[in-house]
Design goal:
Elements: H1 5-17, H2 20-27, H3 31-45, E1 50-52, E2 57-59, H4 61-88, E3 92-99, H5 107-118, E4 121-128, H6 131-139, E5 145-149, E6 157-165, E7 167-172, H7 185-188, E8 193-194, H8 202-210, E9 221-222, H9 233-236, E10 242-245, E11 256-260, E12 267-274, H10 279-294
Parallel strand pairs: 3-4, 3-5, 8-9
Antiparallel strand pairs: 1-2, 5-12, 6-12, 7-10, 7-11
Keywords: DNA-binding, Transcription, Transcription regulation
Protein name: DNA-binding transcriptional LysR family regulator
Family: Belongs to the LysR transcriptional regulatory family.
Length: about 300
């Protein structure tokens, strides 16, 4: 059986000082208590570690060998304790975050960067996914966390509001409406409105189209035949507007700008975690909450 680490650390102090009185003083215990510890350690090992006389202390061959071998062993043990503590507080492990492409433009990189910067033991991977697949993937454990736009349905998860964004439109810089700091919804509805395929995110698609539900005549909605981000010629030419959250500002192509829609409800982004949360899940929740506060993602 391995000796207790306290007695071993006391022995190493004695091996440095070769004097019971000085070693006991450095440790902060009485000299008889140190002597008792060393005798107990020798009994456990079945051999003498020091040779004592009234004036000096010398290491035996076994004592010298233990004094050389013990420090790296104790250092390794300390690292093991630290690893266990880090795992218990969620500072160690592998974290898989699923996210939609739109959330991956700004929100997810900021969160991943903060997680890795503040928790060196974490390995974080961000996986682009179709929005409707994220909540089920968190619920069944295929991913550890998700970042979604809109109030995505699904069971077996907990949702935490991470970000609230204004809704507006992307449009060409030379478009007449770009001269306004805010655009009236009725003014935007006078132009064809460009939206991604509803299957990509039914919740947000319906939220955006609902903005124009009571407008007469009904606006013309246009879904490009190619991926939404692959061709934006109609936007740059000023032929269409694209309803979008303000995060679009960080990724929009040259020649485009973004303006908020007056009176439009916010677009929300959620952090999605399993219903039963581990220390790792609690860690990402704490980091996300701090980040949202620092970046003013949840304005009053």
């Amino acid at each position: 059986m391995a000796p207790d680490t306290v007695s071993l650390r006391y022995f190493l102090m004695l091996a440095q000082e070769l004097n019971f009185t000085r070693a006991a003083a450095r440790i902060g215990i009485a000299q008889p208590a140190l002597s008792a510890r060393i005798r107990r350690l020798e009994a456990e090992l079945g051999t003498a570690l020091v040779v004592r006389n009234t004036r000096s202390v010398a290491l035996t061959a076994a004592g010298a060998a233990l004094a050389e071998a013990a420090p790296p062993a104790l250092a390794a043990l300390d690292r093991a304790w630290d690893t266990a503590r880090s795992a218990a507080t969620g500072e160690l492990g592998t974290l898989r975050i699923g996210h939609s492409l739109s959330a991956g433009a700004e929100t997810v990189p900021a969160l991943v960067d903060r997680l890795m910067r503040d928790n060196s033991g974490l390995q974080v991977s961000a996986v682009p996914m179709a929005t409707p697949e994220i909540v089920p993937a968190v619920a069944d454990g295929r991913i550890d966390a998700g970042i979604t736009r809109g109030e995505q349905p699904g069971r077996g998860v907990r949702r935490f509001l991470l970000r609230r964004m204004r809704v507006g439109v992307q449009l060409a810089r030379h478009h007449p409406l770009a001269e306004h700091a805010e655009i009236e919804i009725t003014d935007a509805a006078a132009y064809p409105l460009r939206l991604p395929d509803r299957a990509a995110n039914p919740v947000v698609h319906d939220q955006l189209t609902t903005l124009f539900r009571d407008i007469r005549p009904q606006p013309r909605f246009h879904t490009p035949a190619v991926a939404f981000d692959m061709s934006q010629t109609d936007l740059r030419d000023g032929a269409t507007l694209a309803p979008a959250g303000e995060a679009a500002i960080s990724t929009q192509a040259a020649g485009l700008t973004w303006r908020p829609l007056r009176g439009a409800p916010s677009l929300v982004i959620h952090l999605v975690l399993p219903g039963e949360q581990s220390p790792l899940h609690r860690r990402i929740r704490a980091v996300a909450k701090t980040l949202a506060h620092e970046l003013d993602w949840l304005p009053d």
